[in-house]
Design brief:
The chain is mainly α. The chain contains nine helices and three strands, in the order H-H-H-H-H-H-H-E-E-H-E-H.
Length: 293
């Protein structure tokens, strides 16, 4: 099964799982007037959108390169992950506002054993989805599924806090309901900012790390026929990079020999670094005698 098919399955499971959680959290949250549970329900609504955007973004990104998109459609993953981060941020503001109102007006809710059951159900579902999506994220380095995986783990942790507040509410510690709601919103803000930055960096063609660049240059220096290198450029393609640079060789060398050096370098560099998708080398002649003078 291909990467895109597995991501498609993961996004569908996310949509179905979050729809189920949204319904049960919403019903119990409004019945008991628990702000933390209502906030959790809003979070699940946002998770449905996240999984839907993962599905659409993955579908577009899976299209092969064509005449209009010579490097493929991989950046669709980052466009849709940025949309996900914006929706997450807006959702967090709504949750934050409502939770602060709970603390100010000292709202309480009706404790119910169903609050405990819903929390436990959510934790089980979210941990299961996290394990599945995290495995895919590590295997395929897909930012959409990575965002989903992070979201599932955060949800499991947040619901654990919600569970604790529900248990303490039985002993009249109702103010924790608002605090947990605020914690949920702040966590979502942090997560959305992290996803937004990663997506922004790729869409703005952030260059390869200095560390990787230096390692590439070290490999080039090991080839005695390469006298000089310049015009080093890198362009992100999904989670990998295409790099290009110009090497200068002895002008008396045959065209065949000079390009054979470039071909070997391209293969060596691309095979050495997991984050380099393609290496393109331009070859220029250089007058050795003039350079030595």
């Amino acid at each position: 099964m291909t990467k895109h098919k597995k991501v498609k399955i993961a996004s569908i499971l996310g949509i179905l799982g979050n729809m189920f959680l949204l319904i049960i959290k919403g019903i119990i949250g409004f019945v008991t007037n628990s702000q933390a549970m209502i906030a959790d329900a809003f979070n699940s609504a946002g998770d449905i959108f996240t999984s839907l955007m993962t599905f659409v973004g993955n579908k577009i990104a899976s299209k092969p390169r064509d005449e209009d998109h010579n490097l493929g459609h991989g950046k669709a993953e980052y466009i849709y992950s940025m949309m996900i981060s914006i929706v997450m941020f807006l959702t967090s503001l709504i949750i934050l506002k409502d939770s602060i109102n709970v603390l100010i007006h000292k709202s309480t809710y009706n404790f119910s054993i169903w609050l405990i059951i819903i929390c436990l159900t959510t934790i089980i579902v979210k941990i299961s989805l996290f394990i599945y999506t995290n495995k895919l994220a590590k295997k395929y380095h897909n930012i959409l599924i990575k965002a989903n995986s992070k979201d599932h783990l955060i949800d499991a942790f947040i619901t654990t806090l919600n569970l604790i507040s529900c248990l303490l509410a039985k002993y009249n510690f109702y103010y924790l309901d608002g605090i947990v709601g605020i914690s949920i919103s702040l966590w979502i803000i942090y997560s959305s900012a992290s996803i937004f930055k990663e997506s922004y960096d790729v869409l703005m063609d952030k260059c390869i790390s200095e560390n990787t660049k230096q390692k590439v240059l070290d490999i080039i220096k090991k080839h005695p026929d390469v006298k000089k290198v310049n015009h080093f450029n890198s362009t992100p393609i999904g989670y990998k990079y295409q790099i290009s640079f110009t090497i200068f060789v002895d002008g008396s060398m045959s065209t065949y020999d000079s390009h054979e050096i470039a071909d070997k370098l391209e293969k060596e560099i691309t095979n050495t670094f997991d984050d380099i998708y393609l290496t393109v080398i331009h070859v220029n002649p250089i007058d050795i005698i003039k350079e030595e003078k």
